[in-house]
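Q: Predict the bound structure with protoporphyrin IX containing FE.
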Amino acid sequence: ERARGFAGTQQVGVAEPVSAFGLMAAFDVVGSDRAALASALQALTAETRRLVDGVPAEQRDPRLPPADTGVVTADRRPRVTVSVGASLFDDRFGLADRRPAELVPMPFLANDRLDAARTHGDLLLTVSADAPDACLHALRQVMRVTRADLTVRWVLDGYNRADAVHTPGRTDNRNLLGFKDGTANLDPTDGEVMDRSVWVGADRNGGTEPAWTVGGTYQVVRVIRMFVEQWDRASLAEQERIIGRRKASGAPLDGRREEDDPQFAADPDGAVTPLDAHIRLARPRTADTEHQRLLRRGFSYSRGHDAAGLLDQGLAFVSFSQTLATFLAVTDRLRGEPLEEYVLPEGGGFYFVLPGVTDDGWLGEQLL
Ligand code: HEM
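A: Predicted complex:
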């Protein structure tokens, strides 16, 4: 199956099946000149379009640096998604009246210890590909053409299990706690689901969003460290109660197979699935919460070890949703969950994925 190209009413990289490798890089815009911002976005768009469409770079003059890093060939097409952070709408560019209605700097949420050096940013690049070198190549190419106007703020790279099967309900992708991840996720290939829960549509969320946001979506990034040594000492029964699923199969605690849906209503006191289990709090399966669905698109990361000799591993949680309120409602319910003892959110941010480009326009053109 041929991967979709760059052009589209929505950007590539949100609705496609998960790639084996991922990378995120946040940037700040140098200066406060809107024309410079526009030219940076034009250069970024041109290079992103070339990379995503797999067009080889043209070397015009051998006396100039190579037009391309040469790390991978153009047919190793990455997916690149560009988002904007709340800070782009501060006083610098006069864009305050065009801010997506819910976009604010990510506040300290439950259990956070945010590191400013790994949080926020004016722009966010999300890259995915079938190999880590293809991700790094895309990042370098984009940085080459935007170097005068954008400075890097933070970078994080990681992976999903390479053999992952991405059919909802039957996944072999596991996070670094060793549990299947993505079981009850939304199906991004279902256009109706995406229109209902992920993309901002023509009605602009009931008219609350500025016109340019149509075809975009809210992106939440939470860089969540896992205390893996501590987790590896917790009993299997405890781990399964904390998540609310069987570790080996991914089945809910009241079911046998991964695709069985938990029946929380039949277990009102939490005798089978504790009331504070992660999946029960995240999605109680009640009539008043079922509309609060997120498309989760995270990846695992490892950054060696810290000064105390503890492994620095975790989950770069990424979610896409039509409204930020959905993410906040889920987070609110998760506040104080037993899983908090084993994880620590350290970075990330709130962003808005720019609408796609259908013609020869550029990303952010409608916004500017
Ligand atoms: C489900 C792990 C953070 C929201 C799950 C599942 C696991 C898991 C193992 C069950 C499999 C699945 O359906 O994908 C983790 C870990 C986290 C983490 C290890 C942190 C390191 C978060 C955060 C949120 C979140 C920050 C949102 C605020 C959800 C949702 C589900 C889910 C909505 C699906 C529940 C359902 O529909 O049954 N998570 N998660 N998770 N998680 Fe997390």
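A: Residues 21-353 form one domain.
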